[in-house]
Every structure is written in structure tokens, then in C-alpha cells.
Amino acid sequence: MRSYRDLFRTPEFTPFFLSYAAYNAALTIGGLALATHVYRATDSPLLSAMSMFGPQLAQVLGATFLLSGADRLAPRSALAGTGLAFAAVTAVLALPGLPIWAVFGVLLVQGLIASLGGGVTGGLLNEILPKDGFVLGRSVFNMASGLMQVIGFATGGALLALLSPRTCLLLAAALYALSALGYRLGLTARPPRAPGRLSVAATRRTNAFLWSSRPRRLTYLGLWIPNGLVVGCDSLYVSYAPQAAGALFACGALGMFVGDVLVGRFVPPALRPRLATPLLLLLATPYLLFALRPGVVVAGVAVCLSNAGFAASLVQMERLMSLTPDDMAGHAFGLRSAGMLTMQGVSAALAGTVAQLTSPATGMTAMAAASVAVTLTLAGWERSSRSAKRGVITTDLAAPSSRE
Which of 2, 36, 41, 243 is most exposed by smallest CB count within 10 Å? Predict the structure, then answer.
């Protein structure tokens, strides 16, 4: 499968894609509205930031206790239920007089639900598309997410100029309900990929199994840490260039879009496995330029170039699927999503702390340097792992003749 036409001709892909886009639009508009509401209520930049990143940090709990449901629940019901649950939770956040402590309690619930939904989405995409169409399909989903972020932030900002944050939260709740309806009407009823019921014990067993393989461990670390550190750079756009933060976010979305198109559509499958490390280095190195405190134009070019490197995740996820049994695909995707989002939340807090003590430019440079260091370390571990594997194979092949 090499064309977008083939992709959208695949049964169920189009309604799946549109429902996913509506979900991401709701996530962006709702997150911006809630952050604005919390900031107006508390005048606290920290609480405002945590209202956006709090659900991501909560996903580590979901990865620990709930991920077995990604393969043990019927996908259509799980996705429709997730959409309805998000609609209800967002409507609760819009209630007048809701205290701030209760807001963060609701966000904890939202993060737990999100940790399950991410795994179900990834596992179902792996079912709907043939193996040779997975990277192309995943790239389209990534592009949808990036575009919905740009559109959602722009639309959300415009709406907040006209409407109250609570009204915008109710609009986000309606979009979540629309996504749930799209999942319910557009997807075929499928049985769970794995037998059994959702349980903490099953989640821990599968997590342990997925983590037990060194190649999978290295793949997960590559998916979680380098791009999480770069998201810490992204979190400082507002403090680096308050009047041009929207332009920097737009440049980043453009770079991400181009990277996903090039890797997902035009790079031959045989070449893709070699691109993970170069793309991760591309993701981080342009941010080293911020040590010189560039102007908005140069900064925008650097951000655009950097974000093309997020396409590394396409290569890494393809590798992850090749190393994972099919009946654990949803759980594997959920673990990837929960770990990645948790790392993004941690990195945003870390970047903000460094920027608070020094400057936003220094914070961005430090996070980028850390990302480069982690990428090179992981690449070295991967090379040593392959060398050790080749050594074992060579020894095994030589053993019969030595015994003779």
C-alpha cells in the first residue's frame, strides 16, 4: 500500500480517521480553554501549565493498572465509550463553581481513561490496515493530530476572545460526543484481540513481557525520551517569544506534517529502519541554535526543520509492531503512548524549571543537548546489541564443527 487513495479506500479507515480528528480537535480546544480558565482563576502559570499536562502525567498510572484492557475490550465499544467518557468529564470541568482541587481530580480520571484509549486506537489501526500500510496510515494519523492542534489552538484562541472558557469546554465536550458517534457508526464490531478481562495483574504481566525483550526496551526508550525532551523545548515557546508563540507552533506543525509525508509516503520500506537515529538527531539539533537567542524568523525555520524529525516515531512504531505478538498490539501501543506522554509532561516541567532559573533560550538548549545525548547513547546500545547477537549466531554455527 503506497498511496493515500489506497489508504482511504480501505474499509473503515475513513470514519476511523475522521473520528480521531474530531477527538484531537476537542482535546486541543478543551485543553486551551481549561488552561485559560485555571490561569484566570489562580493567576498561576504553574497550575495553568499543569492543567494541560496533568492528564499526560496521569497516564503512567493507566499504564500500570489498566492497559490490559487495550486488547481485552471490544475496540469499537472501547473507543465509543472513551469518547463519551471524555465528553462527560469535560462537561463536569465546565460546571460553575468547581474548585481547583476538584479540577485536578477530574483531570486524573481523564488521564487514566486516555491511557486506555491510546492503546485501543493503535491496536485497531494495526488490524484495519495490512502490514505494508501501517506506516502510511500512522503517518496520516500523525498529520491529522498535528493539523488539529494548529486548527484547534487557532480556533480555540478565537473562541476564547468571544466566549467564556466554560462555553468552550462545552463545545469540546460536544466534539468528543461527535467522535464517539463516529466510532460507533463507522466501525465494525470486532471481538477483543486477547481473551480474559481487564485486570491489574494482566496489565503487569504484559508490561513485564513487553519490557523483557532488550530490542523492545530500546525501542520504547527511543520512543519515550528523545522526543519527550524536545517537547520540553516546545513548552517554552510562549516564554521565549510571547507575541509569536502561535507562529512557532504553526512552524512546528508544518515541519511535522512534511516529515510524516516524506517518511510515510516516499521512503522505501527497506530504507526506513536506518532512519530512526538520524531523524531523532534532526529532531534535537536545530534547537541548539537557541543558545544564540535567534530572532523569530530564524527560530521558526529551526523549529520547522526540527519537527520533521518527529517522523522517527513512524519508523520506531513499525519496529515495535514487528517485535510484538499481534494479540498484544493494543497493549504495546498503549504503553508507548502512556510512556511518551508522561515523559512529555515531565520534560515540560523540567524545561520550565530550567527556564525559571536561567532563561527560556537556555532551557531549550539544555533539553535539546540532553535529547542528542540520549539518542547517541541508545544508538550505541543498539549497535552493541546487534553485535552481541551476531556473535551468538556465529558461535552457534561454529559449534558443531568444533565438537567434531
Answer: 243
Degrees, nearest 5: CA angle 268-274-276: 105
Residue of 274, 308, 277, 323 lying closest to 126 (CA atoms): 323
SS3 of residue 127 by DSSP: helix
Residue with cell 526508550: 221
- How far is Cα 259 from Cα 343, in angstroms, rounded to an integer? 22
Task: State how far the Cα of 256 lies from the Cα of 249, in Å rounded to an integer.
Answer: 11
Among 229, 259, 276, 228, smallest CA distance to 379 is for 276
Residue ranges in 129-236 assigned as alpha helix (H)? 134-162, 165-186, 200-212, 214-234
Three-state DSSP state, 292: helix
pLDDT tens digit string along 146-187?
Answer: 777 767 766 777 787 788 888 989 999 999 999 999 999 999
* Dist. CA 96–CA 114, nearest whole Å: 24
Q: Which of 89, 339, 343 is nearest to 216 (CA)?
A: 339
Q: What is the DSSP string of 33-65?
A: HHHHHHHHHH--HHHHHHHHHHHHHHHHHHHHH
Spatial separation of the C-alpha atoms in residues 169 and 153, rounded to whole Å = 13
Please state the pTM of the whole predicted model. 0.71
- Of 63, 104, 110, 71, nearest to 90 (Cα)? 110
Q: What residue type is assigned to position 386 of the chain?
A: R
